[in-house]
């Protein structure tokens, strides 16, 4: 498969995982305005750029998928809903298991998830990263500005995710988690060089990732104890929306 090779987008995202959590000024309570703004950018990209692409993809699926019945005529968006539900369920499971472990160990001040929860959590995000890596590779077939917009949105999204995972797993994430996420990100990107996935599959992957992005951003912004900055979230979303609409 002939394909132009652009390594800077994948390297950019890899560096975010390696060094993003070292930006200590982003940690703490109240929530950093930069993290809230980054979340706003990610959500704006999904609603104004990714979802419109899914509309075109929906037409492709209806023309090329014989099992697309009337009941499933909007199944692309159902996949987005499924992605959102999966990550919501995952987050609730992690929080619930941490509470059980705290009660069991009588450590009320413990905020670090047990090892078993870590592998479930990281395993899910590893698959998520692999999907994003493959979509990133697919973006190289389109205009350069689309790849840049996607790379920026995903880099900021990874930054939000990394701080959320650090809060749950602390040093375990720093030592092992980020390496696993980088590995699967690169593996997903590398799959594009050896296997051309059908367009139908790419559309479904994009839909799942879109739902996941929305859920993973909102779960970091909504908890009351985070003291998130709504104005920063709105500003990030608004400015990136203006940029997307102007192109």
UniProtKB/TrEMBL annotation:
Superkingdom classification of source: Bacteria
Residue stretches spanning the membrane: 6-21, 33-51, 71-91, 112-135, 147-164, 176-194, 200-218, 230-246
Coiled-coil spans in chain: none
Transferase found in the keyword field: no
UniProt keyword terms in alphabetical order: Membrane, Transmembrane, Transmembrane helix
Name of the protein in question: Zinc/iron permease
Annotated source species: Pontibacter burrus
């Amino acid at each position: 498969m002939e394909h132009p090779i652009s390594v800077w987008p994948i390297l950019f995202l890899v560096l975010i995982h390696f060094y993003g959590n070292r930006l200590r000024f982003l940690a703490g309570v109240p929530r950093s305005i930069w993290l809230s703004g980054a979340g706003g950018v990610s959500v704006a990209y999904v609603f104004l750029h990714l979802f419109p692409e899914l509309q075109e993809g929906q037409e492709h699926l209806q023309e090329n998928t014989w099992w697309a019945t009337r009941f499933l005529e909007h199944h692309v968006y159902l996949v987005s809903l499924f992605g959102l539900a999966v990550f919501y369920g995952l987050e609730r499971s992690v929080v619930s298991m941490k509470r059980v472990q705290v009660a069991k160990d009588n450590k009320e001040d413990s905020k670090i998830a047990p090892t078993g929860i870590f592998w479930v959590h990281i395993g899910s995000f590893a698959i998520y990263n692999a999907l994003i890596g493959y979509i990133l590779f697919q973006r190289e077939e389109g205009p350069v500005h689309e790849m840049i917009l996607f790379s920026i949105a995903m880099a900021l999204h990874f930054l939000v995710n990394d701080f959320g995972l650090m809060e749950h797993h602390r040093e375990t994430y720093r030592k092992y988690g980020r390496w696993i996420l980088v590995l699967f990100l690169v593996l997903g990107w590398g799959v594009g060089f050896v296997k051309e996935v059908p367009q139908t599959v790419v559309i479904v992957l994009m839909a799942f990732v879109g739902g996941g992005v929305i859920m993973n951003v909102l779960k970091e912004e909504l908890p009351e104890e985070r003291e998130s900055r709504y104005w920063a979230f709105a500003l990030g979303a608004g400015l990136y929306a203006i940029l997307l609409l102007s192109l």
